Amino acid sequence: MPSPVPQEPGRPPRMHRSLGVKDGVAIAASSTAATTSLGIGMGSLAAYAGRQTPALLLLAFLPVFGIALSYARLNRTEPNCGSGYTWVGRSIGPWSGFLTGWVVLIGSVIFMAYTGAVTGSVVLQFLNKLGLHSLLGLRLDPSSTGISTAVGLIALVLVTVTAITGVRSATRLQMWLLIFEYAVLVVFCGYALYIGDQPFSLSWLNPFEIGSPQALAQGMVIAVFIYWGWDAAFSVNEETRNASDAARGGLIALVAMLGLFLIGAIAFQRVMSTGELIHNGPQALTFLGSSLAPEPWASLPLAALMCSAFASLQSSVIPTARGALAMARDRTLGPVWQRLHPRYGSPAVGTLVIMAMAALLAVLAVGIPKLNDMILTAVNSIGLTVALYYGLTALACAVRFRGSLRDGAVRAVRDVVVPAASALALFGLGGYLVWDYATMSDHFEASPDNGWFMLLLPALFLLLGLATAAWAKWVRRSPYFRTGRGTDADALTLPMDGDAGEPLPRPVES
């Protein structure tokens, strides 16, 4: 437990600068959740890309890495726990900035409601493997939505406590979970590479052998979503000893995820045929373990999956609470999100509110089947919101540093060309996903596999975000919508560009 940091008399609590590069890596890697992505996502990718799944992961990395470089560039000039919300608001416009922060907040709450139940199911599977099938007369059935949700609620409480008592202690826990799960993942995947009976082919790394442009685009959307989460490192840039540590942590984690995904995808294909990968789906990692080792060793991948689910839950609430804190400082959200714990310097109240909303959604979904369908549909269509806020943030980088086009080829490519190209790639994928959803169904139905319903939910989230933004602008009279900056914007000048020493371009006025 971290020691209390003395606060100056008469001054409000503030966040503690106690994190380093390793902490940023832990947060970003936990949020990306490589073990969970490999464990439940390889079957979905194989359904579109076949044996070219490794090529798809490599291709999807390119725009995502361009987005990450944009985050790093913006972070170097203006470290802010609001990250995309702040940068987009100051570079493109406050309405776009608010929507960037809003979709992250709403998407994360829904994702945690869904992931809590999934975590509960994985825990129950692990307990069953250990021979524990009932407790106090209650059957521990992983397929029971009610029991899985109840166990998931316990997980939510645990990660809430660790997130509130200080991000430093939370990241240390995440680091130990990561060490265990990646050690298991590397050992099993390495062994699969060695003994697998499916012959390796260089065609596995050739994206041009994917069956059709439609399969390529649909697979790319899933692959980009699999990388989602590395930007969590930038949410703690006000709690790192050096703001650039957050950028280094995020970039290191992202490159490490690429390596793990490629090793994992090739290892899975060395052991399983395409049909077996698709058939096993979310149980692919468990199937891999049982194929390579006897019990109890075969249960280690399941234990790693359980650790990954816990770490993913915790690393989801940390950036979400800090994004809401940045919005509250600008009075675009209510003051409750801005309250810091007097001892730990964490946004404790906001963390509690986020977890309470996620828990309430999860509980209601047990008794309301249609709500459960809505949550599942929102998770399935979350790729749209990811493409939106990643693309807007990269575009913000290109707009903010457009003056670099006059400062030589290297700076022009780094500050403008790569961010703009990455934003266009993400917008293109998002646009394709909209078209695919709009044409996949010929009628409306409240079902997770109905395209019109999958489009309706993100549209409702955006409309609700616009309504909340209008309330903040005209009722709360937030200065953010007048200046694109914050509540104290009139007393501040824009930060200086670290490379050129010139004031940054002013934001677009609303």
Automatic annotation (TrEMBL):
It is found in: Membrane. It is a multi-pass membrane protein. The keyword Membrane applies. Keywords: Membrane, Transmembrane, Transmembrane helix. The chain crosses the membrane at residues 55-74, 95-127, 147-164, 176-195, 215-234, 246-268, 302-325, 346-368, 374-395, 416-435, 455-475. InterPro entries: AA-permease/SLC12A_dom, APC_superfamily. Residues 32-473 form the Amino acid permease/ SLC12A domain. This is Amino acid permease. It comes from Streptomyces kronopolitis.
